[in-house]
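In practice, a research group might receive sequence data for several interacting partners and want a quick structural hypothesis before committing to experiments. The following worked case mirrors that situation: the sequences arrive first, and a predicted assembly follows.
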Amino acid sequence: MTRGRLFVGVIVAIVAVGLGWLLFVTLPKRYGGGPTNAVSAAPSTTPAPPGRKIKARLFYLAEDGEHLASAEQEVAYGEGPVAQAREIVAAQLAAVAEPLVSPIPAGTNVRALYISDRGDAYVDLSREVSSAHPGGTTSELLTIYAIVDALTVNLPAVRAVQILVDGKEQDTLAGHVDLRRPLEKNLELVQ
Amino acid sequence: MKFRWLPALLLFVVGSVAVLSSQPPSSPALTLFSKDGRRTLPLTLTNDQELVALDDLASTFQLRVQESLGAITVSYKGRTIVLTPDQSLASVSGRLISLPAPPTRAGRRWLVPVEFISRALTPIYDTRLDLRKSSHLLVIGDLRVPRVTVRYDALGASARLTIDATPRADSTVSQDNQRILIKLDADGLDLAAALPTPGPQGLVTAVRLLDQTTIVADVGPRFGGLKATLQPVDNTARQVIDLLAQTDTAQAAPGAAPAPAPTPTPAPATPELPPAFGAPISPIRTIAIDPGHGGDDDGARSASGTKEKDITLAVARRAKTFLEARLGIRVLLTREDDKTLGLDDRSAIANNNKADLFISLHANASLRRTTAGASIFYARFDKDDAARAPAAGAERVPTFGGGLRDIELVPWDLAQIRHIDQSTTFATMLQEQLTQKVPLTPHPVDSAPMRVLESANMPAVVVELGYLTNADQEKLLASDTFQTTFVQSLYDAVVRYRDSLTAAGGTR
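A structural hypothesis for the assembly, expressed as tokens:
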């Protein structure tokens, strides 16, 4: 009886270790890294680092303050959809020079990014996206859809985008827009 | 133990004698209503419990009743109910249900509580059985038998008949000599309460049932004319018939329209209520106004420190006073003071109070200091969300205490989906009322996945009053003039919206 129990215990332990390794070592390696807090340099303002580039449409605050205006920018090439998505988000979050104005609070970083089998991208952002947000429905919409549209417009593999903050699912960024579900592309906000 | 039923029987005998000796002997009976017509089953009253004979049910519903080994087995098409004498628990297809009283023997017959039909028979029977215990009615099959209540109110020289039919059944009103006929579009009527008895002096002298679906009101010699209005109220169709005495007819012909509230002055000291006689009952009875943010959550802030939460509360308070005084309806605020309140709690307050309209007030912010103007948002759902919401419709479920009830199952966070059209209508009306009175953004009405609107189970909008990040707008939003003008426009929009609902409800 005791032996049998011991055997079962050993099996469970082995399976647990195996799962843990898969979950914490293999998968993160495969799906785009841990929370590195790295922000790639602003594509428009700094000289392009050596290496391959792609062109992507990124989104900035339009002159009227109520819409997004898109601009084509050079973004570092990423191997596979996850790496490329991460590069696009990093470029979208990067500080920009006048006359462009970013709709995303300064200091926001991408902590992690995953893409599910059905094409839902989960973008984990640092807390500044919420804590430094000026509030207001319109600016909240523009912050969120700049990221949603940057991924859905440039990557056919991404169907919808859910924004997480500090690794956690959020109700809203500033009390208005529902972040509990992945959001689909919305070009009505783009001029 | 064996004779536990004796006292009950004794009481029954004594009770029966008492009932028989009092006059008239109101022997209760259950009316069965099916496609083939009506018939009745006798009921026995014991200890306030209505019992029906098992063999009466057996012959009516083709049940087989067998008694063996101290159990009574009732079977129907291979499905069984097992009853035990002295026990109020029964097994229905292997599942335990409880009855309000155990089966009782009366001579050679077994009597069971009338709830046996709803709790034991309904689950195993092929055809829908709908027991309406309070009106002693059993509806067999898919027949439309709405519960109907008739109310008669004498109002001085005039009077009003109100006929409520639940679930909704349309009705037509016609006049025939000295009678008003109210014909309901149904298979039968469930008259849950007694019909009113107005008396010979009134405009209406008597109200009675003419046939299975027609109610007739006999009118007296003073009767001059009528105006009938049919409108939906939740799951009820309400037919309101206003009756006028002969001398009044000339004046009351055009339905008094609500006053168009001409001046942008604050709430008048004396309300315009009560609504003019002849005007339909308002489909807007409760409005929930939600002052955005509050407590720990300041919302947006201006450069000089004006907080969104204070502006929204000030405007909400003004709106409450103004709308209540002018419309005579209930306006509730989701928060009355500076307190923290979750987004779900806000829509829950509106839902729990059955608000007919939900208006969430906010002030906007932009990274560009020049951005200005008010805007109105209604909820937006992506394709995936819409697919999650079940097709509109109700599910019929047994209720505690017997009977069936239609309940609508909608995920909490998708409740707004079926109100989107009305929300858009109201948003557009509000924009039209605000135009040229307060500054608006170039495209003031838009949809967005607004968290606070998604769970609201009524037409709902978010109003962004203007941009606190714009210095001119900040001053404007804090001013009396702006707040009064906004509240006046909101009132105008609510009146327009209410009238559009009344018109759609079918004024006749």
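Before designing any experiment, note the following. Chain B has three domains: 22-140, 147-247, 286-504. Chain B is about 25% helix and 35% strand.
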